[in-house]
Amino acid sequence: MVMSSNSTTTTEAKGWYGPPPPPELIDNASSLELLSQGAEARVWLATIDITGSSSETGSKRSVHVGSGINVPQLSSLTQYPSPLLLDESSSSSSTSSQSVKVIVKERFPKKYRHPALDVSLTKSRTKGEARSLIRCKRADVNCPKVLAISNWSNFTDSDGNVDKKSETANASNVSTTSSCLFIEHVQGCTVRQYFEQRLESTATQDPSSSKRQRLEEGESTKLEPKQQDRVTTVIDTDTLGVAYNIGTLVGKMHAAGVVHGDLTTSNIMVTNPFQTSDINQETKQRWEADLVLIDFGLATSTNSTVITDAPNGDAASNTNKKPHKQQHNAEEKAVDLYVLERAFLSTHPESEPLVEEVLKGYREFFENLGCSDGSSKGTYEHVAKAILNRLEQVRLRGRKRECFG
Fold this sequence. Notes:
By secondary structure, the chain is of the alpha+beta class. It has helices at residues 23-28, 88-93, 115-138, 191-205, 211-216, 237-255, 316-319, 323-347, 352-368, 381-404, and strands at 8-9, 31-37, 42-50, 62-66, 69-72, 98-107, 146-153, 177-184, 189-190, 258-259, 268-270, 291-293, 300-301.
């Protein structure tokens, strides 16, 4: 969800594969850049000019995505008032043109699936991602805001008009509809990019560790161990603080009843990365990373950890409700943590201290959950204990798989 240097504009080159993007995106977006594409979806950065005097007035329709949650339905990029405006007050009062940048996650048709099944899966997965994002947003978890949902045709007829034929025309044909999720554009860099930038800046500030200077000093490198040149991860106060905040953020998401499913350092963004040029300023001592979770395409929903107190005020009577459900949630959340742990260790060499800090932040979040004055500290401590104990079992299963295939 961050702009990359290799993103392409559809008007310059075809940077995508599969069916063409919906004509609504190509024709009505002032610029459209492809950020990434996988087998399931394409992610676009779209710049849209919204004019208050638009002739096309959009009806305030919504799409029910489950759990009593409704998302505005976008019929056209030119409709007004537009749900794509983050400031709803400006949408209703301003008549001037406004330019907004949004992320469009397009789930395009798949040729290998039956058209009826393809439409059903595409819509349900888009709704599921929107539902998970909104549940996190309501629980004060830092994630992009869901703006709208649309279902647009990818093809035009012989006259150049958007094909309006049925989504599931014939069993021999592929579906012609893409399901698009419009979400807030988050600026910044990923945690992975942040760690890589810290490594580069550290190498620049400490030239004595570079191979070039050793050669200039006439040091022989024939017998030099290769370990001196291997890439490691910077471990300092800043990176440990980022790791701790990751654990807190993941704990808050799990407490809201959402399991991410693809927790990696590429799916967590730093919205206020510290600039290397400011490294000598006093503000560095007060810097704390603002993190945002992105890419909820594989997210699933579980029951919320925070339990409402019983009418008689006895919270303990509700704590032991549905133990089998609590255990099932512990398994899913432990797997979520295991995926994050493996992502750290495989992407960032020698990052074990960062993983420990992540788990520390996760555990302490649940220990402090529900206590504003410290009186009820420990109410949800058993939740973190159950999840971390299950994480040990998941690790053992992973090691056994690595040994025996």
